[in-house]
Structure formats: C-alpha cells, structure tokens
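Re: duplicated header lines in exported structure tokens

Our pipeline writes sequence and tokens for each protein into one text file. With two proteins the header for the second block appears twice in some exports. Here is an export where it did not happen, for reference. First protein block:
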Amino acid sequence: MSTFSETAWLCLAVPAALGGIVLYKLKKSPGQVGGKVVCLGGLWAGAYLLSLSLFWGWVLFPLSCFLMCAYLSGHEFLPVDQKAVLITGGDSGFGHALSKYLDELGFTVFVGVLNEKGPGAEELRRTCSKRVSVLQMDITNPQQIKDAHSKVVEKVQNRGLWAVVNNAGIIGLPADGELIPMTNYKQCMAVNFFGAVEVTKAFLPLLRKSKGRLVNISSMAGGVPIEKLAAYSSSKAALTMFSAVMRQELSKWGVKVSVIQPGGFKTSIAGTSEMWNKLEQDILDNLTPEVLEDYGQDYILEQRDYLKFISGSTNTDMSPVLLDIHHAVSAKSPFAFYSPGPMAYPMLCFVSFSPTGVFDYFSKKLPHFRGGMPKALTKQA
C-alpha cells in the first residue's frame, strides 16, 4: 500500500512540476497553447483518477512528460533577420492587424489587398514602416497573383520569401444550406479555398528555396459543424485538409505548414449591410416556388440577424490569433494546428472524439442563433 501511494504521488507530482514549468514558459506563448497543456494534464489526471490501474498510470505518465517537453521545445524563436512574409486579405481583420504586428517585430511584409486604393490599404501605408509593401492582389484573379509574385521576387532578390500567410476569406450571408445559392457556394470556394491554393502554388518555389513557412488561416467552423455556415464551413474544411496534405508533402523540402483555426473573433468578414441586401435578394431570386413556400420569406429575411448574433458574441481582442500566427511563422518547431479563441480547441476536440449523437445533442444545448422556424414547420406545430 505504501509503495502504491508513493508511486501515485510520483505520477502526480512530476507532471505537476512539468506543468508548472510549461505554464511559466507560456507567458509569452501562443494564445491557446497553455490551454492545450492544461487539457493534456486534465486528461491524464482524469484517466488516472478514474483509476484505470497502476499500469495505465505508468503508461500515461511518460506520455504526458513527452508531450509537455515537446511543447516546451516549440518555444524557441528564430531571429527575424529581415525575413519577408506575404499576407493576403490585408484590407481589414486578421490580415490588417497581422501586417502591423509583424512590421513592429521587424519583418519585411508584403500585404495583398483587394483594393489598393481602399481605406485599409491607405492606413497601412500611412501607419507602417517602409518595410511594408501594399500589393493589389485579388486572389481570385490569376493575373494579379502573378503581378504580385513578380513584385515580391524583385524586392526580396537573394533574401527569398520566408512565409506565406493565406488569410483572405469571405463568409457570405449565413442561411440554411438548402437556401444558399450555388453562386455563394462557388464564391466561398473560389476565395477561401481555390484562391489560397493558387497563391500557395505561385509562391511555393520561393518557400522551398528558403525552407520557410506556409500558414493557412482556416476556421473552427472548418472542423466543427455550425448551422447556417454550410458554404463557409465546407470551404474552410477543404483548406484545412489541403494544409494537412501539404504539410506531409513539403516536409521533405524543409517547409513547415501550419493551419490556424480561430474561434469567434470580430472582424469585417461578414461584409456590409449593402452586401447583405444583395445576398438576401440572391437567395430569394434563386429559390423554387416550393422551397420559398416551405421556408417562407419572413424566415429567410430573419437569417440576417445571425450576423448580429455573431457580432455580439465574438471576441474583439485579436491578440491570441496574432500570437499563434507569429509562433507559426517564427518558432523553430511550429505546431501543425493552432486554435485561438476560448471555445475553439475544446469544440474541435469534442467533435473529433465524441459520438455524433452526443455532439448533436450538446450542440443544441449551447447558446446559438435560433431565428424562428420555417413556415411549413410552424404550420405543423
């Protein structure tokens, strides 16, 4: 009994000590890495206390130590040394904030924008250093990608390009998947997936030469099914899988690939009121009389309120995302996946490991946009 007690204390004390070291080291680390370590420790302690047995305690003990040490080793940063980074979607949101952040850290930054004469581009020119170059770069336009590539090559010359951050993205107007027009599905894929793929293919020779970094900004919605986001989520899921495949293929070239899956952060990805009006009209114009009758126009128009719900429940502090992207770009051993945001990592784990029925049940219990019921279902009730 005494031996068992001493062993139990050892199994608990050593990971606790390692966890303390990890948490101390994580003061300046990516936003959600600390949470992952806590989850890891919780899983280990839970499994031990559920008392699997002394044998399982000893199995989980070295595994915990190994994983904690792996996290520690990932926090050695490479020097900036005028490394050049290309960021797409710099007009606003993550891309805009990241451009300023990396500029402050001393990186040479190329910012691709949808409108080089727009307010976002003008603000970057006004507030950033001369290390920042703003490039006209609609990622659905192959010629603009080629032109941007030529300008990057001309400027970096022998220094090469260290990282590409595929950030540009759109969400469209959230609605039931049956209501979303095919044009909106195709547009989401064109920007969120095909655009990122084309930018990647154009700049990969430069990344292979520098043995640099490819960082793709996906979304928690690319791994967690969320109602009203069928078009957006599908495109982000495609980007996540593309990133995973490229991570394997590019490892032999020394290029490291990371995917960022943020939770809810307040950006301008939802667009403007004028854009919502157009998307609403597109939905109404493309529905068959039968579908319009079943859902009802009032229900369809209520879907716009989903964007107001998102806006009121998202985080205005983008620093967790910026810290994770910085880690992916600069760490000697970047992680394959990052999930900044309070609920992102737990939700991704939940959907990955729980039975589908369990996830569906609990997802209905979480706070979410309700937005009424389709007309036909209201009649049935």
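Second protein block, exported in the same file:
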Amino acid sequence: MDKDSLLHVLRKHAMHLPCLQFIGDACDVTEVGDGNLNDVFRVVHRQDSNVTSSVVVKAAPPYIKCLGPEYPLTAHRCTIEYQALQKFHEIVPGYSPQPYLLIQDRHMFIMEDLSDGYVTLQAELIRGKLHLAAVRNIAVFMACVHSATHNRSQNGLLTSFSNPDMVSLTEQYIFTRPYLKDDPTNHSSEPIKAILHLVYDDMELQSIVGKFKGLFLEKQESLVHGDLHSGSILVRPEDGSVKVIDAEFAYIGPSALDLGLLLASYVFSYSAHKEKGNDAESRTFCELLCQAIQLTGETYNAHLTSQEDAALYFSQLMPEVAGFAGCELIRRIIGAAHVADVEGCPAAEERALRAGIWLLKNHQTVTSPTVFLICLQPAKLMLNMVKQ
C-alpha cells in the first residue's frame, strides 16, 4: 500500500476518530519495523519540524510478507491481534499499545505510536542492558492476562481467539520442521551442523518434542500472546516500562508457552554475552540475566490470582515452561528463524542449543527458576547437577 492509498483510507475514518483528526495533506507516512509477516506504517503530522500527532497502522497482506505472495497466510491475523490488544488493555491497561480502530475490510488496524523512547527488549539485551523493572513488568503482564482468562471458555474467548492458521504456523516452525533432518526451511552454521546428531539422532528428545507439540495444540488454559520473545516486547530504558506488541499469534493455549518463550530469550542473551566477552562487564550482565529469570518466576507467581495455591500451580507449571523454552532454543539455532543475539558466534549458538536439549530432556525436574538456571551451565556440568 502506498502513502496516498493509506491516507485515503484514514481520511474516511478521521471524522469519527479523534486520534485521526490530524490526517491531512501535511502528513508523513513512513514504513517502520522489520516484521516477517506484516506491513507497519507510522503516520505523523509535523509543525515547525516537531511531531504534533501520530499513529501507527498495521496491515496484514494475505501472505507471509518476507516470503511473498506464493506463501499465502490468513489476513484474519489482523483481527486477532486487534482483539488481543483490546483484551490486554481491558485486563492490564498500559502494558501494550492502545488499539484505536480495526478496519476489517482492509485487514488493518490503527494503534498508539510508541516510537518516542521505546526500543525492543532484544536490542537492549544485545547491547548488554536490562532494567529489572522491565523484567517485573513483563511478568506482571503475563500473570494478569493468564489469570484473568484462565479456563474461561464459557465467556466466548475460544471463539474470539480461534486462530487455526497462525497456530498451525507455530506448530510447523517450532515443533515440527526443525526436527526433520531434510526439511528445506532449516539452516544452521557449519559448526552447528557438526553436532546436529544431538537433535536428529536422539529419539528420546524427538519424543519429548512431540509431547510438547501436543500440549501446544491441545491445552486450552488461558489467552496467551503466542510469540512472546524479546523482539515482541518494547521497553523504555530509563524507567523499565514495557509495551507488548505483535500479538497476531494469540490464542487460547498453555500459559507456560509465553513464559517459556520469554525465558528462552534470556538464555539466548546469556549465551551470547558469556561466549562473546570475558570481561567484568559481561560477567556482571550474565549475573543480571540470572536474576531476571529468577525475578520473572517470583513476580509471575506473586501476581497469579486464578489459583488457590499459586505456589503449587507454579511448581507444576515450570516443567512445561522448561519444555517450551527448550523447543524455542533449538528451533532458533537449527530452524528457519534465527535470533540476532547469537548469530555469528558458533560458541554461543552451541551453548544455547545444548541448553535447549537439556531443558527438554530434564523438564520434569525443573520445578523452579533455580533449577531452570542449570541450563546456563557448561554442558559438562549439567549432567552432574540433576540426575537424568
């Protein structure tokens, strides 16, 4: 969609929506973001070189953007994301961009512009920065959303968040294709190829992944974001406030999925900083990441309101968290979509891969964040710390 076409659509709605009343010929339209799936535009009005008003418009083409029209994908994901942002704001206001308007026939929606002061959590982690207030805020967001929607199928959430095409995409690229030796979408660095037998030749591991695929597809526990990695979270470095974005994968599934994907992001960052630097600053940041994993668990547990015995529930949830984190760690090293944190550093890739394998094969022993932290240890120490 070009600038003129987008502004034409927005003008049609400007008179009914206060946040769009600035739309006019003096507006600038810029494509922003580097998403694989969608088009994202920032629309701003300037006066004397200063931005006076702005919104972000997200549009879903009927295909995977980064692959092209020959890879069709439902545009309904736009509606799912808009509804998820609405629900997030209803449950825990301020932790995600405010949605303003869904233009369903155009497969687009308008939302709050967060360009002022916010960066992705991933960008912060890569540069070795992490505000513990952000860690707490992300955990609060997850706990509140999961608690408010826990086993609430009677209120229509299952229908509102029926998202079979996006669920299928996740199933394929997290739980299936990475474990198929000859799948053409997989790729890995040459050093990693030398140890791929650790994944492809381990039938026990393959069976455990199958278990978590079933859990992902069948457990209807709460509304989950479905793609809660460090690139889907914006943070404001000065105060640790957060905004959760990119909710097009939202569905009713296992609460442990969101926690697992998030903790995997911290493991990737730990792996990168542990292997890329051996100075005091790197060691201090790795210690901070360990604190982040502990703090995530403690904060999530403290804000659960749907369980009579939250501590017991959380200890029973942690093995699922470990398994989902393991699947995410492995697929990001050998599957189709890698992460910038460890790219170009084979030692960091191997550390993350081995952490993922350990978490899957030992998931039943992981009943707390403290045990989860064992996956950060060198491979030769892991076997001695928890009996297999």
